[in-house]
Amino acid sequence: MRELVMDVVVLIGRVLFAALFLGAAFGHLTQADAMAPYAESKGVPMAKWGVLGSGVVFALGGLSVLLGVWADLGFLVLAALMLVIAVVMHQFWKESDEQAKQAEMVNFNKNVALAGAALMLFAFFAHVEDLGLTVTGPLFHL
Question: In whole angstroms, what is the distance from residue 140 CA to residue 126 CA?
Answer without folding.
Answer: 5
